[in-house]
Amino acid sequence: MKAPVALVAALLVAVAGIAGWQGYRALKDARSALASLQPGPIDVGFAQSMILHHQQAIGMAQFMIDGRPPGLAHAIAFAQLEELGQMRGWLTLWNQPLQLAGKPSMDWMLLGNEPPGPELSRYLLDCQRSPTGMTGLATSEQLNALRQAQGRERDRQFLSLMLAHHEGGIPMARFAAVQARLPAVRQLAGRVVMEQSQEISRIQFMLQVLADADATADAAFGTATKN
Fold first, then answer.
1. Cβ distance 185 to 204 under 8 Å?
2. Same domain membership, residue 119 and residue 13
3. Cα dist. 155→65, 137, 166 in Å?
4. Can you give the residue range of the structural domain that contains 19?
5. What's the number of domains the chain is made of?
6. What are phi and psi of 63, to 5 degrees?
7. CA nearest to 175, candidates 166, 162, 185, 161
8. Which of 54, 55, 171, 194 could serve as 80's disulfide partner, Cβ 3.0–4.6 Å?
9. Which of 91, 72, 70, 7 is nearest to 202 (CA)?
């Protein structure tokens, strides 16, 4: 009887070992899955920086709702309010501050899988030199001038500021669309690139329309003064 008992004991040990290994693998897989849901510094940095960026764009757009490019202002405010809510929700879920105090830092863009190339290096240098800490972000003086402008001049200032604003925001969104850890962050960043690239084309067209209108008005004024 001793041999069967020893055999059963050996089998139980083997089964326990297999179960232990499977449990270890399951625990390891669960930890890996949990880690994949945790944000990296690029996810956090992008959300904090883009929140600041979106807040200013929304403010300018809301100021221009009654302006002559109302469709553009509505589109910007609607899209960016939704994205702003998503990013605030993420940071709250991650127990991260919605934005950092003081001048914003773009150092999170140095944490990619590869060292920054010439284009990214120039962008980061421009951000460091900017009084707002972020390329394309309007200064308080520019915003005050927009509030005081009237008519066509207000439209022109709004479009010019928003053009620079979008051109300054796209590089960090493009970076996050590739380098962020979480798929949801990469997806939102990619959407920002697409939306703002389309809006840049629209803004450039509207600025050209304003320039053509000014040229026509100047020509008409010149003709009138000669007669």
1. no
2. no
3. 11, 18, 16
4. 1-37
5. 2
6. -65, -30
7. 185
8. 54
9. 72
User: Is residue 86 domain-shared with residue 175, that is, in the same domain?
Assistant: yes
- Give the residue ranges of the chain where pLDDT is below 70: 1-36, 66-70, 217-227
pLDDT value, residue 99: 77
Q: Which residues contact 28 (CB under 8 A, 6 or more apart)?
A: none
- CATH code (residue 202): 1.20.1260.10
Short-list 227, 89, 86, 63, CA closest to 154: 63
Question: With contact defined as beta carbons under 8 Å apart, do 189 and 173 qualify?
Answer: yes
Tell me the C-alpha distance between 155 and 200, whole Å: 15
For the chain, how are helix, strand and coil distributed in percent, rounded to 5?
80, 0, 20
**CA-CA distance, 18 to 224, in Å (whole number)?**
96
Contact 60, 143 (CB under 8 A): yes
For the chain, the residue count is 227
Considering the domain architecture, whether residues 100 and 176 belong to the same structural domain is answered as yes
Amino acid 216 reads T
Residue 22 and residue 76 share a domain:
no
Same domain, 220 and 113: yes
pLDDT of residue 193: 98
**What's the Cα-to-Cα distance from 15 to each of 2, 6, 22, 29, rounded to whole Å?**
20, 14, 10, 21
What are 192's two structure tokens?
């920002």
How much is the pLDDT for 14?
61
What is the DSSP secondary structure assignment for residue 137, as one 8-state letter? Answer: P
